[in-house]
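Appendix B: complex inputs.
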Amino acid sequence: MTQVALPIVDRPAEKKIKLDHTNAARAFVTNPDRAPWHDESLWFVRSKRDKQASIIPEWEYLRSLASQVKTATIANLGDYLVEFERNATDAGAVVHWAADAKEHNRIVLGILRDHETTKIVKSKSMLTEECGLNHFLEDNGIDVVDTDLGERIVQLRHETPSHIVLPAIHLKKEEVGETFHEHLGTEKGAKDPKYLAEAARGHLRDKFLAGEVGITGVNFGIAETGGVVVCTNEGNADLGASLPRVHIACMGIEKLVPRLHDLGIFTRLLGRSATGQPITAYTSHFHGPRDENSELHIVLVDNGRSKLRQSDEFRAAMHCIRCGACMNTCPVYRRSGGHSYQATVPGPIGSVLSPTRDLKEHKSLPYACSLCGSCTDVCPVKIPLHHQLLAWRKEIGFMNLLSYDKRISMKAASILFRSAKLFSFAGWVGRKALKVLPHWVTHQRFNTWTIARELPKPPKESFRSWYAKNRNSETPKG
Amino acid sequence: MIQPIEPIQTATTKSRQTILDRLMAKEVESPGLPTPDPSKLTRFDDPLAKFSEILEGVGGQVHLIDDPRQVAEILGKTEVFSNAERIVSLVPEAVDNSFDISSIDDPHDLAAVDWTIARGEFFVAENGSIWIEGQSLPHRVLLFIAQYLAIVVSRREFVHHMHDAYARIEAPKSPFGVFVSGPSKTADIEQSLVLGAHGCRALQVFLTP
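Resulting structure:
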């Protein structure tokens, strides 16, 4: 085997301290055009989702079915994985198991080296993004081409996707035009999406024809049949999995459903929740390699999932089918952009998942949330997202990971709210202070609350004294 | 950092055990798998009309015809078909082949196909999709590599929704099967919908008796 001779280059793990969400979002939020424009784009997608959900009378019923199927799958995940492996192998696929990202990458590289190939075409997969596959393969001399248009755009710009379904949602068409002018030779200043998409079509068709191995993600694996299902609108996964002789499908172990007919539930929910479409343009089912001269490799990846399963509090996050509905509806995500989450999966579900990997590094994410609950309302598999975010905050407080200013103010608030006398005295001080203190005292850099807003005018008297005057004499009726 | 590689098979066997051990270590209660109640699922008075409405909504075109030969007639009126040089028809009673597909071994040789005329097994009313069985395709890439795609399917072969669709498929008959709904499309550039991303630029569906 060639793999023994060739060494593997592993990039040394760079441990950089991540910014907290607030600081990472600053540039995006303070850009007067960008944040409202981004907000509107995503609200448009959310509205399309609402329309689709409202015309399906059994929508809520489908959500509970989906949630039940996922609960049962995750409960018996070990058994279903073994069943999946057996049936996939019987169908002629080769099943690999990867405990973590590093191993996943090595397995993929091993298969590529076995075939002595350096040219691969890849369709969208958040899992390979999570594993850092592109960088790893590039470091080892492989030419990786992302073929989903949005992913290709961010790849050419050396960026990461800012959304799991709409990877380039943070970019304006002028910026895409600029990128394509530089890399694909389109006309300078061109910004017509039709023209730009046509240029990408031509460019990527050459790559498809040159690709020697196709890598795809997996939307659903089916334990009963050993098959995998891939959903796309562009048809890029299909070209990538149908032209080369070798197809590698990378799959998170939580992507299983037990039976073929369970797909009836999930294919109805996925497209509608994701982009407001009745179904994706292509919903492709792969059972084994396409013929006797071809290969299908399925890489099952854990990378923290089995650990997440052990948590009673956060287990339901494994139900996620990566539709992105929670991002599209989240008022914080819409205004702060996906990159501010500094994680492969941003938005509400990302804010739940990232801390399960490294709580210290991602401790600010559960606070990037107004607890409005909208994510929980739209989630097609009923993950109680905002409850989980609140649970993380408790955990962060309990672990003493809160920032010093938050810890002090929480302690102070707790003391204040526990004593009626102290509370009323503080109110008196506050009303007086607001009246007499000069503006510069209340508006300085230590008071972050007043950076973008004025303090309220103090009322003449407290509610307590108003109540004593106006209501105390009346005896409650009944 | 350059290191030797451990053979995949040993590594994968070890990790398989690690993952399964971790999954088996914690027992999790579950209410069991549900079975959808058919009485709670949408049915349509006019499935054909619903299918057409949805498919046209996502950029497909639907034609009701009485005779398969009408496919060639209707397509012939369009420039993209009458100018086409390479047509692969998997429905010989509808459209003639312009070259012999059986001589092709390597799917890459199909890169210049202008049209594929494929056969659909059945259609789904609720979402405007059509199920195509891999075994009806000499090369599955034909569905995706052709510039234009037409699908011929009987209007008697329908299901109301995806639950019935999978009940009808029952078990995989070949390594590949796909629900196709509309032409290939993208909205990755500022949410503007563009038809014809990598796959077909347009989809024509012909419903025969």
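Chain B has one domain: 45-208.
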